[in-house]
Design a protein that fits this description.
With 179 residues, this protein is α+β, with helices and mostly antiparallel strands. It has 2 domains: 32 residues; 121 residues, no CATH class. A 6-stranded antiparallel beta sheet has the order 4-3-2-1-5-6. A hairpin with a 2-residue loop joins strand 2 and strand 3. The longest helix is centred in the N-terminal third of the chain and has 27 residues. The chain is globular. 18% of the residues are buried.
């Protein structure tokens, strides 16, 4: 007990207050532990080998359908939101792919805001506006009626991710990888 040896000297009212406060503290501590366990690091990295066939196919599929994506982005249909591009950033020998949103067309290609914090490359930071070209784009995505559309590389990464991580993203972000 918090006041070991002194409890019998405290009036009953104060003993109840101390016990109540101690119970509140324990309850609040447990709530924080559970809340922390349910949070995810939105900058999680899933390592995928460069020669991964599913990832190569996902990038090819995204690049082949990029013009269709841009048509939707220019005139978003009802029920769509969260248009984003995934862009490769190079820093020497290191390469890392980031979601960029919002983004816009420029005279030399595109520019947009990095939506993630880098873990490998050191030449950019989350929230930074970066220029990029069409050849840097490795994926695209948006939300339609609460479900992810596109995001082909995410589905390819799921094959390398822990099951609980995949389930979390499917449940909280509407990923439905059928291919």
């Amino acid at each position: 007990m918090l006041f070991a040896g002194c409890e019998e000297q405290l009036p009953m009212f104060w003993r109840l207050i101390v016990r109540f406060l101690l119970a509140c503290f324990v309850s609040l501590s447990l709530t924080q532990v559970v809340a922390h366990a349910q949070r995810r690091d939105h900058n999680e990295i899933i390592g995928v080998p460069n020669e991964d066939k599913a990832m190569s196919q996902a990038i090819a599929k995204a690049q082949a359908s990029l013009d269709d994506f841009f048509q939707l982005w220019k005139k978003p249909p009802s029920g769509t939101s969260g248009f984003k591009l995934k862009v490769r950033v190079v820093d020497g020998e290191l390469r890392e792919h980031f979601w960029v949103k919002p983004f816009r067309v420029t005279a030399n290609g595109f520019e947009g805001v990095l939506a993630n914090e880098p873990r490998l490359v050191k030449n950019v930071r989350g929230g930074q506006q970066i220029p990029f070209t069409r050849s840097d784009i490795s994926d695209w995505g948006y939300v339609r009626d609460g479900k992810q559309v596109g995001s082909f590389t995410v589905c390819a990464m799921f094959k390398h991710a822990p099951k609980e991580q995949v389930e979390y993203y499917k449940q909280h972000y509407g990923f439905d990888c059928k291919d």
